[in-house]
Structures are given as C-alpha cells and as structure tokens.
Amino acid sequence: MAVVFRPVGPLPPGAYWFRRLLVLALVVIIALVVWWVFVRDSGDADLAGADPQPSATDTPSPTPTTSPKPTKTQTTAPTAPLCDDEGDDKDLAVTVTTNEPTYAAGQEPTFTLSVENISDAKCRRDVGPRALELWVSSGGSKIWSSDDCSPGGAVDERTLLPGDSFEQTVQWSRVVSEPDCPTPQDQAPAGDYQVVARNLEIISDPAVFTLE
C-alpha cells in the first residue's frame, strides 16, 4: 500500500500524482458518458411503450346527418267539363264582320268568321272547311257561297277554352257563284249586300256592306 501512495521513479512525485489524477478523471468521464447513454435509451424505450395521447386531429368528426328531402306533392289542376263534342248552340257564338262598310269599284271585301266559346266549360268543335261557310246575298237572293267552289274538306277539331275563339279570314273577289262552280263567273253589281257565316248548324247574324 505504501508503494501505491508513494510514487517511485526518477520523476518528481508531483508528476506521478498528476498522471494518476488524469487517469482517474478519464475514468469518471467514461462512466458518466456510459450512464447518460443508458439513461437516455431507457427513457426513449419508456416513451415508445407509452400509449399515445389522442390529439385534436385524431378525434373522429361527427358524421353529418342528411335530412330527408321533402316529397313533392303531385297536384292536378281541375279539369273543366267538356260540353258536347259538337257543342250546343248555347255554348258557341258564330259571328262575321267586314273590314269596311263600303267598297269602291274593284275593291275586294274581306270577311272574318269567328267561332267563340261563350260557355264556362271547354268545348271541342269542328272548324274545318266542311263545317264553315260564308255566303253573300242581296235582296233575298244568294249571290256567292264559299262552298260553291270549295265544297266539303277535312275535319279540323279544336278544343276551345271558355272565352277562346277560332277565326278565319276570307277575301271575296266580287263574283257571282253557283254550286259546282261553273265558269265564267259574273261580277256582282253595285248595291247593298249582307254576308252570313255558318259553323255546322249555327248561323251568324248578317253583316251589311255596300259595293260601289
């Protein structure tokens, strides 16, 4: 033991003590380094084994609920009753007008025939060529009829709502006509005339005009 504490050698004793302190300090440093590495690894292992705390982003967001869309209610507009297929005389009004009261020589009159639904129900009515007629008379004698040269024709049924009307315009060339449309046709003389319109069995009031 005396040898350990009493340095032996050619160097001064202080040199040997310095060496021993240097070695001791190195050993202490190595021990501290080993301990620090061991403690750190142990702490990391503990953290790795711990259950992670749920974060705000890990919290599942509530699933949005979809409200059922309201179901549309099917509504049907009330259907107006139909009057007779051909309409009654009380359901329809037939009228005729002229575009001028007096026509100069060579001027051709224009007639407008109208079939109006005057009832409060919709009506189905034939307004085709076979169902319509215009005729011109003077002094009680027939002068011209639209059916003389264009008899018959197709059926054209229209549904007229209350207040609706069907109109047709016809120009008269001031000729005198006969059934089957024989030619030549004479010109109607100057004088007072009246025109009447017909739709099936309904006949209008006359419209009066003058040819010069």
Can you characterise this structure?
- There is one protein chain.
- The chain is rod-shaped.
- The protein has 212 residues and is α+β, with helices and mostly antiparallel strands.
- The strands form three sheets. Strands 2, 5, 6, 9, 10 and 11 form a six-stranded mixed β-sheet that branches.
- The longest helix has 37 residues, at 13-49.
- The protein starts with a helix and ends with a strand.
- Helix content is 21%, strand content 28%.
- The chain folds into two domains: 2-45; 92-211, Immunoglobulin-like (Sandwich).
- The protein has helices at residues 2-5, 13-49, 146-149, and strands spanning 92-98, 102-103, 110-117, 123-126, 132-138, 141-145, 157-160, 165-171, 191-199, 202-203, 207-211.
CA distance, first residue to last residue:
168 Å
**pLDDT averaged over residues:** 79
Quaternary organization: single chain
- Sequence of secondary-structure elements: HHEEEEEEHEEEEE
Largest sheet, described in full?
6 strands, mixed
The CATH superfamily of the largest domain appears as Immunoglobulins
Backbone shape: rod-shaped
Helix and strand content put the structural class at: alpha+beta
Low-pLDDT residue spans: 1-5, 54-81
Give me some keywords for this one:
212 residues; alpha+beta; Immunoglobulin-like; 2 domains; 6-stranded mixed β-sheet; 3-stranded antiparallel β-sheet; 3 helices; 11 strands; rod-shaped
Short description:
The chain has 212 residues and is of the alpha+beta class. It folds into two domains: 2-45; 92-211, Immunoglobulins (Immunoglobulin-like). Helices cover 21% and strands 28% of the residues.
